[in-house]
Specification:
Layout lengths: L4 E5 H17 L3 E5 L7 H9 L4 E4 L2 H9 L5 E4 L8 H7 L2 E4 L2 H14 L3 E7 L13 H8 L5 E8 L11 H18 L5 E3 L6 H5 L9 E4 L1 H5 L1 E2 L4 E2 L8 E14 L22 E7 L11 E3 L5 E5 L4 E4 L12 E6 L1 H9 L4 E5 L2
Parallel strand pairs: 1-18, 2-3, 2-9, 3-4, 4-5, 5-6, 6-7, 7-8
Antiparallel strand pairs: 1-12, 10-11, 12-13, 12-17, 13-16, 14-17, 15-16
Protein backbone atom coordinates (compact mmCIF):
# COMPACT_ATOMS: atom_id res chain seq x y z
CA UNK A 1 0.00 0.00 0.00
CA UNK A 2 1.15 3.55 -0.73
CA UNK A 3 3.12 5.56 1.81
CA UNK A 4 2.84 7.90 3.56
CA UNK A 5 -0.90 7.55 4.00
CA UNK A 6 -3.64 8.87 6.20
CA UNK A 7 -6.09 6.17 7.24
CA UNK A 8 -9.66 7.47 7.43
CA UNK A 9 -12.27 5.35 9.20
CA UNK A 10 -15.39 6.49 7.36
CA UNK A 11 -17.59 4.03 9.24
CA UNK A 12 -16.74 5.46 12.65
CA UNK A 13 -17.04 9.02 11.37
CA UNK A 14 -20.50 8.21 10.01
CA UNK A 15 -21.50 6.73 13.37
CA UNK A 16 -20.28 9.87 15.14
CA UNK A 17 -22.24 11.99 12.68
CA UNK A 18 -25.39 10.00 13.43
CA UNK A 19 -24.98 10.46 17.19
CA UNK A 20 -24.20 14.17 17.02
CA UNK A 21 -27.07 14.76 14.60
CA UNK A 22 -29.50 12.85 16.81
CA UNK A 23 -28.36 14.69 19.95
CA UNK A 24 -28.82 18.06 18.26
CA UNK A 25 -32.23 17.10 16.89
CA UNK A 26 -33.39 15.94 20.32
CA UNK A 27 -32.45 19.38 21.65
CA UNK A 28 -34.13 21.29 18.81
CA UNK A 29 -30.80 22.38 17.37
CA UNK A 30 -30.07 22.42 13.66
CA UNK A 31 -26.62 21.21 12.70
CA UNK A 32 -24.07 22.20 10.09
CA UNK A 33 -21.40 19.52 9.76
CA UNK A 34 -17.99 21.13 9.29
CA UNK A 35 -15.97 19.20 6.71
CA UNK A 36 -13.15 21.70 6.16
CA UNK A 37 -10.47 19.38 7.58
CA UNK A 38 -11.08 17.14 4.57
CA UNK A 39 -9.82 19.73 2.07
CA UNK A 40 -12.72 18.99 -0.25
CA UNK A 41 -12.65 15.21 0.17
CA UNK A 42 -15.96 13.94 -1.16
CA UNK A 43 -15.89 10.55 0.59
CA UNK A 44 -15.36 12.23 3.96
CA UNK A 45 -18.24 14.60 3.27
CA UNK A 46 -20.40 11.66 2.25
CA UNK A 47 -19.86 10.04 5.66
CA UNK A 48 -21.44 13.17 7.23
CA UNK A 49 -24.34 12.97 4.79
CA UNK A 50 -24.80 9.25 5.45
CA UNK A 51 -25.02 10.12 9.14
CA UNK A 52 -28.09 12.25 8.47
CA UNK A 53 -26.49 15.69 8.25
CA UNK A 54 -28.19 17.91 5.66
CA UNK A 55 -26.03 21.03 5.92
CA UNK A 56 -22.27 21.05 5.25
CA UNK A 57 -19.87 23.87 6.08
CA UNK A 58 -16.42 24.62 4.72
CA UNK A 59 -14.05 27.58 4.89
CA UNK A 60 -12.81 27.23 1.31
CA UNK A 61 -15.03 28.08 -1.61
CA UNK A 62 -13.11 25.63 -3.81
CA UNK A 63 -14.21 22.79 -1.54
CA UNK A 64 -17.84 23.91 -1.64
CA UNK A 65 -17.61 24.02 -5.43
CA UNK A 66 -16.31 20.45 -5.39
CA UNK A 67 -19.26 19.38 -3.26
CA UNK A 68 -21.70 20.86 -5.75
CA UNK A 69 -19.93 19.34 -8.72
CA UNK A 70 -20.02 15.94 -7.03
CA UNK A 71 -23.82 16.15 -7.02
CA UNK A 72 -24.45 17.30 -3.45
CA UNK A 73 -27.82 19.09 -3.28
CA UNK A 74 -28.02 19.91 0.43
CA UNK A 75 -27.27 23.20 2.15
CA UNK A 76 -23.75 24.61 1.90
CA UNK A 77 -22.36 27.13 4.38
CA UNK A 78 -19.24 29.22 3.72
CA UNK A 79 -17.62 29.45 7.15
CA UNK A 80 -14.80 31.88 6.39
CA UNK A 81 -15.86 35.46 5.78
CA UNK A 82 -16.26 35.95 2.01
CA UNK A 83 -13.56 37.75 0.07
CA UNK A 84 -14.83 40.68 -1.99
CA UNK A 85 -13.26 39.16 -5.10
CA UNK A 86 -15.29 35.95 -4.76
CA UNK A 87 -18.82 37.20 -4.00
CA UNK A 88 -20.19 36.02 -7.34
CA UNK A 89 -18.84 32.52 -6.71
CA UNK A 90 -20.25 32.62 -3.17
CA UNK A 91 -23.73 33.31 -4.53
CA UNK A 92 -23.35 30.55 -7.13
CA UNK A 93 -22.19 27.79 -4.80
CA UNK A 94 -23.05 28.63 -1.17
CA UNK A 95 -26.52 28.90 0.30
CA UNK A 96 -25.40 30.65 3.45
CA UNK A 97 -22.34 32.63 4.47
CA UNK A 98 -21.01 34.12 7.68
CA UNK A 99 -20.42 37.88 7.48
CA UNK A 100 -19.07 40.76 9.56
CA UNK A 101 -18.34 43.58 7.09
CA UNK A 102 -20.98 45.92 5.66
CA UNK A 103 -19.07 46.33 2.40
CA UNK A 104 -19.04 42.56 1.92
CA UNK A 105 -22.75 42.21 2.63
CA UNK A 106 -23.52 44.93 0.09
CA UNK A 107 -21.32 43.19 -2.48
CA UNK A 108 -23.14 39.90 -1.85
CA UNK A 109 -26.46 41.67 -2.34
CA UNK A 110 -25.31 43.18 -5.66
CA UNK A 111 -24.05 39.80 -6.87
CA UNK A 112 -27.29 38.09 -5.84
CA UNK A 113 -29.36 40.71 -7.68
CA UNK A 114 -27.37 40.16 -10.89
CA UNK A 115 -28.19 36.44 -11.00
CA UNK A 116 -31.60 36.78 -9.33
CA UNK A 117 -30.72 34.28 -6.59
CA UNK A 118 -31.43 34.81 -2.92
CA UNK A 119 -28.58 34.29 -0.47
CA UNK A 120 -28.63 33.75 3.28
CA UNK A 121 -26.27 35.35 5.78
CA UNK A 122 -25.46 34.86 9.45
CA UNK A 123 -24.02 37.99 11.03
CA UNK A 124 -21.13 37.09 13.31
CA UNK A 125 -20.74 38.62 16.77
CA UNK A 126 -17.41 38.74 18.61
CA UNK A 127 -18.10 37.77 22.23
CA UNK A 128 -14.44 37.75 23.29
CA UNK A 129 -12.33 35.34 21.22
CA UNK A 130 -11.22 38.20 18.93
CA UNK A 131 -11.49 36.36 15.66
CA UNK A 132 -14.30 37.40 13.29
CA UNK A 133 -17.36 39.33 14.36
CA UNK A 134 -18.90 42.65 15.25
CA UNK A 135 -18.64 43.90 18.81
CA UNK A 136 -22.03 43.66 20.54
CA UNK A 137 -22.41 47.41 21.06
CA UNK A 138 -22.03 48.02 17.32
CA UNK A 139 -24.55 45.48 16.08
CA UNK A 140 -27.55 47.80 15.68
CA UNK A 141 -25.55 50.19 13.51
CA UNK A 142 -24.40 47.24 11.41
CA UNK A 143 -27.95 46.00 10.88
CA UNK A 144 -29.11 49.49 9.95
CA UNK A 145 -26.79 49.31 6.94
CA UNK A 146 -27.90 45.88 5.72
CA UNK A 147 -31.47 45.27 6.79
CA UNK A 148 -33.08 46.47 3.56
CA UNK A 149 -30.57 45.11 1.03
CA UNK A 150 -32.26 43.20 -1.81
CA UNK A 151 -31.96 39.43 -2.42
CA UNK A 152 -30.45 38.76 1.00
CA UNK A 153 -32.05 36.74 3.78
CA UNK A 154 -30.67 37.62 7.20
CA UNK A 155 -30.97 34.14 8.65
CA UNK A 156 -29.60 34.98 12.07
CA UNK A 157 -26.59 35.84 14.17
CA UNK A 158 -23.74 33.69 15.38
CA UNK A 159 -20.44 33.58 17.19
CA UNK A 160 -17.22 31.63 17.30
CA UNK A 161 -15.04 30.89 20.32
CA UNK A 162 -12.04 28.71 21.03
CA UNK A 163 -10.40 28.79 17.60
CA UNK A 164 -8.13 31.81 18.00
CA UNK A 165 -7.72 33.05 21.56
CA UNK A 166 -8.97 29.87 23.20
CA UNK A 167 -11.87 31.61 24.91
CA UNK A 168 -14.21 29.00 26.35
CA UNK A 169 -17.94 29.07 25.65
CA UNK A 170 -19.86 29.94 28.79
CA UNK A 171 -23.45 30.60 29.73
CA UNK A 172 -22.74 34.33 29.90
CA UNK A 173 -20.95 34.82 26.60
CA UNK A 174 -23.42 32.56 24.78
CA UNK A 175 -26.41 34.38 26.29
CA UNK A 176 -25.13 37.54 24.63
CA UNK A 177 -26.34 36.10 21.32
CA UNK A 178 -29.81 35.33 22.65
CA UNK A 179 -30.19 38.81 24.12
CA UNK A 180 -28.96 40.52 20.95
CA UNK A 181 -31.28 38.45 18.78
CA UNK A 182 -34.27 39.51 20.87
CA UNK A 183 -33.26 43.18 20.62
CA UNK A 184 -32.75 43.01 16.87
CA UNK A 185 -36.03 41.18 16.28
CA UNK A 186 -37.92 43.87 18.15
CA UNK A 187 -35.98 46.85 16.80
CA UNK A 188 -36.00 45.84 13.11
CA UNK A 189 -39.04 43.54 13.02
CA UNK A 190 -36.89 40.63 11.85
CA UNK A 191 -37.42 36.90 12.28
CA UNK A 192 -33.74 35.90 12.69
CA UNK A 193 -34.58 32.18 12.82
CA UNK A 194 -31.02 31.02 13.56
CA UNK A 195 -28.90 31.74 16.61
CA UNK A 196 -25.66 29.92 15.85
CA UNK A 197 -23.99 29.30 19.18
CA UNK A 198 -20.58 28.08 18.05
CA UNK A 199 -18.63 24.93 17.32
CA UNK A 200 -17.62 21.68 19.03
CA UNK A 201 -16.51 23.61 22.12
CA UNK A 202 -20.10 24.72 22.69
CA UNK A 203 -21.27 21.11 22.93
CA UNK A 204 -19.94 21.08 26.50
CA UNK A 205 -22.80 23.40 27.46
CA UNK A 206 -25.20 21.10 25.64
CA UNK A 207 -23.83 18.07 27.50
CA UNK A 208 -24.13 19.90 30.83
CA UNK A 209 -27.68 21.04 30.05
CA UNK A 210 -26.55 24.65 30.43
CA UNK A 211 -26.83 25.82 26.83
CA UNK A 212 -28.94 28.99 26.95
CA UNK A 213 -32.45 28.58 25.61
CA UNK A 214 -32.67 30.13 22.18
CA UNK A 215 -29.43 28.75 20.79
CA UNK A 216 -30.71 26.62 17.93
CA UNK A 217 -27.80 26.08 15.55
CA UNK A 218 -24.27 24.67 15.91
CA UNK A 219 -21.38 24.19 13.47
CA UNK A 220 -19.61 20.97 14.43
CA UNK A 221 -16.61 19.27 12.90
CA UNK A 222 -14.08 18.07 15.47
CA UNK A 223 -16.60 16.13 17.57
CA UNK A 224 -17.75 14.17 14.52
CA UNK A 225 -14.29 13.64 13.10
CA UNK A 226 -12.36 12.87 16.28
CA UNK A 227 -14.86 12.49 19.10
CA UNK A 228 -12.93 15.14 21.02
CA UNK A 229 -13.25 18.74 22.20
CA UNK A 230 -9.73 20.13 22.31
CA UNK A 231 -10.79 23.57 23.57
CA UNK A 232 -12.28 22.04 26.72
CA UNK A 233 -9.69 19.22 26.79
CA UNK A 234 -12.24 16.43 26.86
CA UNK A 235 -13.10 13.15 25.21
CA UNK A 236 -16.76 13.24 24.22
CA UNK A 237 -18.78 10.42 25.70
CA UNK A 238 -20.47 8.00 23.28
CA UNK A 239 -18.34 9.16 20.34
CA UNK A 240 -15.47 7.24 18.76
CA UNK A 241 -11.92 8.56 18.78
CA UNK A 242 -8.81 7.95 16.65
CA UNK A 243 -10.77 7.87 13.42
CA UNK A 244 -7.65 9.03 11.59
CA UNK A 245 -4.13 7.61 11.76
CA UNK A 246 -0.98 8.16 9.73
CA UNK A 247 1.21 5.37 8.40
CA UNK A 248 4.74 6.01 7.10
CA UNK A 249 7.55 3.68 6.09
CA UNK A 250 11.09 3.51 7.42
CA UNK A 251 13.67 4.63 4.85
CA UNK A 252 16.69 4.51 7.19
CA UNK A 253 17.30 2.57 10.40
CA UNK A 254 20.62 3.02 12.19
CA UNK A 255 22.28 3.33 15.58
CA UNK A 256 23.45 6.93 15.92
CA UNK A 257 24.46 9.39 18.63
CA UNK A 258 21.50 11.22 20.12
CA UNK A 259 23.29 14.57 20.06
CA UNK A 260 24.78 16.13 16.91
CA UNK A 261 28.50 16.66 16.37
CA UNK A 262 29.78 20.11 15.48
CA UNK A 263 28.70 23.70 15.93
CA UNK A 264 24.90 23.98 15.98
CA UNK A 265 23.21 26.86 14.16
CA UNK A 266 19.69 27.35 12.89
CA UNK A 267 17.73 24.56 11.26
CA UNK A 268 15.87 24.87 7.95
CA UNK A 269 12.92 26.53 9.73
CA UNK A 270 14.93 29.19 11.53
CA UNK A 271 15.04 27.48 14.92
CA UNK A 272 18.03 26.54 17.05
CA UNK A 273 17.37 22.92 18.05
CA UNK A 274 18.29 21.60 21.48
CA UNK A 275 19.19 17.93 21.94
CA UNK A 276 19.51 15.76 25.02
CA UNK A 277 22.57 13.52 24.90
CA UNK A 278 21.26 10.03 25.68
CA UNK A 279 24.13 8.19 24.10
CA UNK A 280 23.81 5.99 21.06
CA UNK A 281 20.19 5.25 20.14
CA UNK A 282 18.41 3.40 17.37
CA UNK A 283 16.85 5.96 15.07
CA UNK A 284 14.44 5.54 12.20
CA UNK A 285 13.79 8.03 9.43
CA UNK A 286 10.29 7.95 7.94
CA UNK A 287 9.26 9.17 4.50
CA UNK A 288 7.12 12.08 5.64
CA UNK A 289 7.96 15.56 6.88
CA UNK A 290 6.83 18.97 8.04
CA UNK A 291 5.47 19.75 4.61
CA UNK A 292 2.91 17.00 5.17
CA UNK A 293 2.12 16.90 8.87
CA UNK A 294 2.07 18.93 12.08
CA UNK A 295 4.90 17.39 14.07
CA UNK A 296 3.53 17.86 17.59
CA UNK A 297 0.22 16.33 16.51
CA UNK A 298 1.73 12.84 16.12
CA UNK A 299 1.25 10.20 18.84
CA UNK A 300 2.92 6.84 18.14
CA UNK A 301 0.53 3.89 18.28
CA UNK A 302 3.26 1.53 19.50
CA UNK A 303 4.90 2.03 22.88
CA UNK A 304 8.60 2.76 23.01
CA UNK A 305 8.67 5.19 20.08
CA UNK A 306 9.54 8.85 20.52
CA UNK A 307 9.22 11.54 17.87
CA UNK A 308 12.53 13.43 17.72
CA UNK A 309 11.98 16.00 15.00
CA UNK A 310 11.59 16.52 11.30
CA UNK A 311 12.81 18.36 8.27
CA UNK A 312 10.59 19.16 5.29
CA UNK A 313 10.63 15.57 4.05
CA UNK A 314 12.04 13.38 6.84
CA UNK A 315 10.53 12.40 10.18
CA UNK A 316 13.03 11.18 12.80
CA UNK A 317 11.93 8.87 15.59
CA UNK A 318 13.75 7.02 18.37
CA UNK A 319 12.77 3.34 18.27
CA UNK A 320 15.31 2.00 20.78
CA UNK A 321 12.68 1.01 23.32
CA UNK A 322 10.13 -0.44 20.92
CA UNK A 323 9.57 -4.16 21.43
CA UNK A 324 10.30 -6.42 18.51
CA UNK A 325 12.55 -6.05 15.51
CA UNK A 326 12.31 -3.37 12.88
CA UNK A 327 13.74 -3.26 9.38
CA UNK A 328 14.03 -0.70 6.64
CA UNK A 329 10.70 -0.73 4.77
CA UNK A 330 8.61 -1.47 7.86
CA UNK A 331 5.71 0.85 8.64
CA UNK A 332 4.98 2.84 11.79
CA UNK A 333 1.55 4.20 12.67
CA UNK A 334 0.57 7.35 14.57
CA UNK A 335 -2.58 8.73 16.12
CA UNK A 336 -3.31 12.32 15.08
CA UNK A 337 -4.64 15.51 16.58
CA UNK A 338 -6.87 17.86 14.59
CA UNK A 339 -3.99 19.99 13.29
CA UNK A 340 -2.07 16.95 12.07
CA UNK A 341 -5.17 15.68 10.25
CA UNK A 342 -5.63 19.05 8.60
CA UNK A 343 -2.07 19.14 7.27
CA UNK A 344 -2.13 15.53 6.06
CA UNK A 345 -5.46 15.91 4.28
CA UNK A 346 -4.16 19.02 2.54
CA UNK A 347 -0.85 17.52 1.42
CA UNK A 348 -0.91 16.17 -2.16
CA UNK A 349 1.93 13.81 -1.22
CA UNK A 350 -0.11 11.79 1.29
CA UNK A 351 -2.29 8.92 0.09
CA UNK A 352 -5.84 8.71 1.47
CA UNK A 353 -6.72 5.22 2.65
CA UNK A 354 -10.44 4.85 3.34
CA UNK A 355 -11.61 2.29 5.89
CA UNK A 356 -15.19 1.04 5.67
CA UNK A 357 -16.84 -1.90 7.37
Amino acid sequence: MENPRININLTQIRENAERVFENCRNNNISLTGVVKVGAGDIKLAQSFINGGIKSLGDSRLDNIRNLRRSGYQGETVLLRLPQLAEVTEVINYADLSLVSEVVTVKALSEAAVKVCKRHGIIVMIDVGDLREGILPDQIKDFFREIVNLPMLDIRGIGTNVGCYAGVLPTISNTEILVELAEELRDYYSLELPLISGGNTATTRLLSDNTLPEGINHLRIGEAILQGTDITNQRIIKDLQQNNFTMTASIIELKDKPSAPTGEVGYDAFGNIPVYEDRGVRKRAILAVGRQDVKLDGLIPVDEGIKVLGASSDHLLVDVTDKKGCLSTGDELEFYLDYGAILRLMTSPYVYKNYIMF
